[in-house]
Design brief:
With about 350 residues, this protein is of the alpha+beta class. It has 3 domains: about 120 residues, no CATH class; about 60 residues, Signal transduction histidine kinase, dimerisation/phosphotransfer (DHp) domain (Helix Hairpins); about 140 residues, Histidine kinase-like ATPase, C-terminal domain (Heat Shock Protein 90, 2-Layer Sandwich). Helix content is about 65%, strand content about 15%. It has 9 helices and 7 strands. Strand 4 and strand 5 form a beta hairpin. Helix 1 runs antiparallel to helix 2 and helix 5 packs parallel to helix 9. The longest helix is centred in the middle third of the chain and has 92 residues. It is rod-shaped and about 135 Å long.
Amino acid sequence: MARRDLLRALGIIAVTLGISTVHYFTPDSMVQVHYLIQRLFYVPVVYAGLYFGWRGGLLAALLAGLAYLPQIVTTWKLHPSYSINQCAEVTFFFLAGIVAGLLADRERRQKKVLQETTEQLSRVYRELQDNFERMKRAERLYALGQLSAGLAHEIRNPLASIEGAAAVLLREPPSEERRIEFLQIIQKECRRLNRLLTNFLNFAKPREPEFAKVRVDQMLDSVVALAEHASRRNHIVFRKEIASELTELECDSEQLTQILLNLTINAIQAMPDGGEVVLSAHRQDGNAVIQVRDQGTGISEDNLEKIFDPFFTTKESGTGLGLPVAHQIAARQGGVLSAMRNADRGMTFSLEIPLSTEREAT
């Protein structure tokens, strides 16, 4: 940097002396050329002000004035009145150098302040990122703690039922009917425990999604076919609404089917007296939006913010892990799962997922 500044200073001196030499040896008869060369002194002066500040501009103006002095002395002998104008011109050299230097100094100060502000913002941003990562880790640990506590609580009930049924079988010789009844209780509670542990594992460590192109209509057909087994006694009618511009998307079809099936079964269970479940799909801002709309009892405003919390459920036999697992699976595919109350009755669950596989890491 110092070497570059030295070369600039030497260049300014050389240019100034060169202009002075040309000016001095130009014939007096070439008035227009004299006038043009006289203005050339401003170039090194302004340049020095821009690169070295007002002090550099002042020194360059002094050098230009000294280099211009031989011409002033020569002119004074022939045209004293014109020499006065030349002396005034030297004053303008100083003004030009100082003004250019002051403006350059102000720009440098502003640039320095901007650079310091940028560095400070970058530092604050890095700190925010670090804090955010720490918060995410703390949140995961907190969720895991809640999950473990909830799991322990949920396991107690089926274990108590299994223990009670086994105790009855051991205590008194039951009839064939009673024996079958208690064995069915044990089998039912074992299935419940298995389902609970499966959901827990899916929530705690879901597998990585495997993306592939999937036809939306075929995926919804699969969901309806699976859900119909649970809807036969509820008088449920299924309806599909697929926008023509949305034919396929890239996703993990198995995981998405799991999400949509969970939402559809929830919709069926929310309509014990029957009704209509609408599965719709359309494009919105480069995303695919798949919705499950029901005509059920809905969810109260107080509970709406809690439905994605682990082990929160309003069902007597629910585990409270279905929606949290679905929410997490959606997030791992770069999507968002949300819920809203319908204007008339029931709920609408919306799964918004990118159409392409260029998703942010989650």
